[in-house]
């Protein structure tokens, strides 16, 4: 008997019929002899409906009260799933975030989990019940209701799996796993049977939307075995088949990782803008003089490149979220240029970031050069390059996004699965 | 500075605009220097929407999970009202039933309040905040969410007012007070400036729908000064005017009650049916032999009349809710007649119960006879009579309901206000 955590998102819980399907799927796992804890999101559309209602009442809704309102979406979901389970003969009980309790800090709308009590969940499991837990929500030290921010239900699921030392955390979603790249761009993209946690983290931060990045961080911190799989298959698919479907996230000390792939996947993101401050004096402290005021304005800088200097002057380039571009310009003009000098400022919000991720590149050089060669053969100009241990990210003109992804996917033979060393 | 509890029902909270109006009304009381605790219901229609959703998922929804779902309606309301208050510069905080905490037993869907913690509410009041509390809900000793049953928000308000020893509990509703009778039947009906708790209790049980009967019982138990008043007036009406509007529920030791009214109001109810078991032997124990099995079947008997016996046989008549009539017949035929004998059984589900209520009739005879005279002059036949210390109830043919109410209203000169001794 294993302890298995399931997670179902808003689409999977989107209608009474789908909720009954989720119940059948959960029942199947319970009847196979497992203890099951299920984390669910609000029915699709519900969170947006609640936020819109709040905005109708208040133009700038108070964050604490917004959390009080938003958490009702998941509370309705847990009640509905628990009653659907009982209807088909599976003893079940629902628990809200505070009933568990999921303890968080008091940052409304983006709270971080501190600890999770496992007492109540374990008591209910001992009674033979399936425990249905509301995702996305917690309670702060004063007993106020908090939420973990958008996509927080993934984080709830992974954190609860960690607290319970669950044997596996199954994230049921509307795709059937993690792919070598977005199948809408490259139809030959292959589903990965497994991916290392670090690769998953890099893919999530590079724009892959399969898992929320905070949930991946959490999974890595506590080495939670997570599997991403489809909730759209036949709910009566045998457990033995479902148990090995989708994509398993593994950890370095996992023996399966001995056969390391060079490159596992390619992600593309079109949400950034590029900013270049020309002719800044190349002297110690200039980088922090530029990036300090930007960080203070709560703007997240992603890639940073500084060119070699010519006659004591250099060009400093970085990327920021597109929505923060105007704000960034204001900070540069008001707080940076008056201090460090330099100029003019050049911006481009028609860029794409293409990232190649693979734990194998850690020990193998040549990944970057293979990338540059493949792109240059197609005449795609590279605007920026940034490398980490297991990722190479490039910025290209936005119009080349799909082409660049296809070219790189082919260059690493990913249509045959992760390219091995 | 007084501590005032406000209660707003679903109609008052029915739209973003109405919620902003409630906020203005609450702000006015706060700005007049009072501490204010507000209890709210779910937005009108919301509880029904949630129950319908539950029924779509499960034909016979589990009561525990139904409470988990139903309580989200009030949770949304408290968040919306708290943010509307903050928007107009009034510091406010929302609290759910478990956050207060309102401790109840574990009878889902009809829980009874055991105790109410006043710590958190008092802390928030000390911080200068308006405290917005979700009505209708509580938490059982195991930490499960419970509800108090339909109309439970009135009970929440009165109970919280009692726990806080509030100076007054203002029940804002869609009528502007308690009337001598239903103004839709008698346009000349007069609003009462005050009514004794006992009269209010009798009126509530006699069919007046102004306040939920459990909330009146609670008010009486803890002598909570309650005022029923309108939420549909201009929210900016001066506090001094609003503070004396509507109808105040008073207690016997209240000096205002020295000027006792003979009769305060008349209520009518069309929800009962009459059952007569003819020819039962008139011997000790027969009443309990008839009513025992009916009580065991969870059928509530209201009026009971036993005629004088003729030749050792008597007729036994009682009223039950119309919806329980068939069930009652089954119990009589299967469990009563085989034991006590008697028969046939006669039923009538086209009856009305007319009740005249007045604390003054305690010390003054003649109320009943004045009633009979007035009705007989109009040719209205009286089928049953039942009297209590401060109420006389009559059963008449349903078709005479409005006529009987008008005749009695006039007989006691209630168009000039409560008829005095």
From TrEMBL, chains A, B:
Its EC number is 2.7.2.4. Signal peptide: none annotated. The keyword Kinase applies. Substrate binds at residues 47, 74. Residues 275-348, 356-421 form the ACT domain. It catalyses: L-aspartate + ATP = 4-phospho-L-aspartate + ADP. Pfam families: AA_kinase, ACT, ACT_9. Pathway: Amino-acid biosynthesis; L-threonine biosynthesis; L-threonine from L-aspartate: step 1/5; Amino-acid biosynthesis; L-lysine biosynthesis via DAP pathway; (S)-tetrahydrodipicolinate from L-aspartate: step 1/4; Amino-acid biosynthesis; L-methionine biosynthesis via de novo pathway; L-homoserine from L-aspartate: step 1/3. Belongs to the aspartokinase family. This is Aspartokinase.
């Amino acid at each position: 008997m294993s302890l298995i955590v399931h997670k179902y998102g808003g689409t999977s819980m989107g209608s009474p019929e789908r909720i009954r399907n989720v119940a059948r799927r959960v029942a199947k796992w319970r009847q196979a002899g497992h203890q099951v804890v299920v984390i669910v999101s609000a029915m699709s559309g519900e969170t947006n409906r609640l936020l819109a209602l709040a905005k109708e009442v208040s133009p700038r809704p108070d964050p604490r009260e917004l959390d009080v309102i938003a958490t009702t979406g998941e509370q309705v979901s847990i009640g509905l799933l628990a009653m659907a389970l009982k209807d088909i003969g599976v003893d079940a009980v629902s628990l809200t975030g505070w009933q568990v309790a999921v303890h968080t800090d008091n940052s409304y709308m983006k709270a971080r989990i501190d600890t999770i009590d496992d007492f109540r969940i374990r008591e209910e499991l001992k009674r033979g019940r399936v425990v249905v837990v509301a995702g996305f929500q917690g309670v702060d030290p004063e007993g106020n209701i908090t939420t973990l921010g958008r996509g927080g239900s993934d984080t709830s699921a992974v954190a609860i799996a960690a607290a319970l030392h669950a044997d596996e955390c199954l994230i049921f979603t509307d795709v059937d796993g993690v792919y070598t790249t977005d199948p809408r761009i490259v139809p030959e993209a292959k589903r990965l049977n497994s991916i290392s946690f670090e690769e998953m983290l890099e893919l999530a931060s590079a724009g892959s939307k399969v898992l929320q990045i905070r949930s991946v961080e959490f999974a890595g911190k506590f080495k939670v075995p997570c599997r991403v799989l489809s909730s759209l298959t036949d709910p009566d698919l045998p457990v033995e088949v479902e148990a090995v479907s989708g994509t398993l996230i593994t950890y370095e000390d996992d023996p399966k990782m001995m056969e390391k792939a060079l490159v596992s996947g390619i992600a593309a993101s079109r949400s950034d803008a590029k900013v270049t401050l020309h002719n800044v004096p190349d002297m110690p402290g200039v980088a922090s003089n530029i990036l300090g005021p930007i960080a203070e304005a709560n703007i997240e800088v992603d890639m940073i490149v500084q060119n070699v200097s010519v006659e004591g002057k250099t060009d400093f380039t970085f990327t920021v979220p597109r929505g923060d571009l105007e704000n960034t310009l204001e900070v540069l003009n008001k707080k940076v240029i008056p201090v460090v000098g330099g100029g003019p400022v050049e911006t481009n919000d028609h860029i794409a970031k293409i990232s190649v991720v693979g734990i194998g590149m850690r020990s193998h050089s040549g990944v970057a050069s293979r990338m540059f060669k493949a792109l240059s053969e197609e005449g795609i100009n590279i605007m920026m390059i940034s490398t980490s241990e297991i990722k190479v990210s490039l910025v290209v003109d936005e119009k080349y996004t799909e082409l660049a992804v296809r070219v790189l996917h082919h260059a690493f033979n990913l249509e045959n699965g992760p390219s091995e060393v």
